[in-house]
């Protein structure tokens, strides 16, 4: 690293050793500056061996040693025509070192980042958090992606106690992606652990030569839709395919507590589980962000013990019934209560058939009196009314209070 950040060792010795030998009046100062330069390297040798930026501060003392040599030359009685030109020897040597290495990096015109950080920035919401492994404590990826991040330090990637604490600290945050670089790209244990904790993809959603990104399942399908088009992000590729349509026989998916307030901001209290036919998605409708609950979807909301009412705004998007050719044959909207023992009771059921019933068009509202049973949770369901084609149903708002 001397050769990269300062001078080759032989060049530094060629300049400093003669000063120590032939400039006795300045010898102590030259030696002291040189000792301070070497001291830190001897105290923490591994840091200086692998990270050149440690030299930025220590090099001050090496430069001071060179300056003392030059001052000694000025005091030595040598003619100025000899001593002054010698000043340019260390300056020329320092410039040659810079020109050989750092100059090439600094000459590149760049706005920073890479296709990886640009894609992360584009595909994850601004409020979300990244989990990054393989970069040690170098936060370049979250810096250029403009996201908060948990940087997993080298050696802690499989430390269960550490990961338990670190992931618990993210309980009130929404984790949008796990980013693995270098040797951590093959760490399947970490992938599965983070995926289970934060509802992430278990295979890389997209890849860059420098890393793999496992995105939140809340955004996976919309990200893949964009990635399979002309996305424009340099060296970003994907081998992932859209998931098959979910059915009521598939297991429910737990919602991380930190994600629920942002991802399901139209639902109160925050839901605990979901199962959506085509994955999580939202539609803009009359200025609101509505939850895509295409027929055969389920959303689970814990019932507050003091609740007295269920308020549900729902409907079908107009293009489901205002279209040429085939249209929806209607959607069944259901609310069921489930006890901790699995016993269910139906609290609400309504069929919307906007093609046949004009009153079923547009936003619908149900206010249902409700007395919760101990530990009960509510299932908000959509089911087809014969066929699921064009059953583009949505939830605009759920309030249980």
What is the first-to-last residue Cα distance? 65 Å
Large-scale geometry: elongated
Provide mean pLDDT, rounded: 94
- What is the spatial order of strands in the main beta sheet? 6-8-11-16-13-14
Number of helices: 14
How does the major sheet shape up?
6 strands, antiparallel
Beta-strand residue fraction: 15-25%
Overall strand count: 17
User: What are the low-pLDDT stretches, counting only 5+ consecutive residues below 50?
Assistant: none
Characterization of this structure:
There is one protein chain. The chain has 401 residues and is an alpha+beta fold. The protein is built from 14 helices and 17 strands. A 6-stranded antiparallel beta sheet has the order 6-8-11-16-13-14, with no helix packed on it. Strands 7, 9, 10, 12, 15 and 17 form a 6-stranded mixed beta sheet that branches. Helix 2 (9-22) runs antiparallel to helix 3 and helix 3 (27-43) runs antiparallel to helix 5 (55-75). The longest helix has 21 residues, at 55-75. It is elongated.
């Amino acid at each position: 690293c001397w050769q990269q950040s300062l001078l080759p060792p032989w060049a530094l010795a060629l300049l400093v050793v003669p000063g120590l030998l032939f400039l006795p009046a300045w010898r102590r100062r030259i030696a002291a500056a040189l000792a301070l330069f070497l001291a830190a390297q001897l105290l923490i040798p591994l840091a200086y061996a692998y990270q050149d930026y440690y030299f930025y501060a220590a090099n001050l003392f090496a430069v001071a040693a060179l300056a003392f040599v030059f001052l000694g030359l000025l005091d030595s009685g040598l003619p100025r025509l000899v001593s002054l030109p010698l000043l340019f020897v260390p300056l020329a040597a320092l410039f040659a070192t810079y020109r050989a290495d750092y100059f090439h990096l600094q000459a590149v015109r760049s706005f920073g980042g890479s296709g990886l950080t640009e894609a992360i920035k584009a595909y994850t919401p601004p409020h979300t958090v990244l989990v990054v492994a393989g970069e040690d404590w170098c936060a370049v990826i979250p810096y250029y992606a403009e996201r908060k991040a948990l940087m997993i330090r080298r050696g802690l990637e499989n430390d269960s106690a550490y990961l338990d604490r670190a992931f618990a600290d993210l309980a009130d945050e929404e984790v949008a992606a796990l980013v693995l670089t270098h040797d951590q790209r093959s760490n399947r244990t970490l992938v599965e652990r983070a995926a289970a904790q934060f509802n992430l993809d278990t295979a890389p959603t997209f890849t860059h030569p420098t890393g793999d990104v496992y995105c939140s399942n809340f955004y996976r399908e919309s990200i893949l839709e964009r990635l399979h088009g002309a996305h424009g992000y340099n060296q970003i590729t994907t081998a992932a395919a859209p998931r098959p349509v979910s059915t009521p026989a598939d297991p429910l998916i737990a919602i991380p507590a930190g994600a629920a307030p942002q991802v399901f901001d139209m639902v109160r209290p925050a839901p605990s589980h979901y199962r959506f036919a085509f994955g999580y998605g939202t539609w803009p409708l009359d200025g609101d962000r509505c939850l895509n609950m295409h027929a055969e979807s389920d959303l689970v909301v814990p019932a507050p013990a003091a609740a007295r009412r269920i308020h549900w705004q729902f409907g079908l998007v107009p293009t489901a019934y205002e279209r040429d050719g085939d249209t929806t044959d209607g959607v069944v909207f259901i609310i069921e209560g489930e006890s901790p023992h699995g016993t269910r009771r139906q609290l609400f059921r309504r069929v919307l058939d906007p093609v046949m019933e004009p009153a079923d068009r547009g936003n619908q509202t149900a206010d249902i009196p409700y007395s919760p049973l101990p530990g009960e949770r509510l299932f908000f369901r959509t089911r087809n009314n014969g066929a699921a084609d064009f059953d583009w149903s949505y939830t605009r708002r759920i309030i249980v209070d």
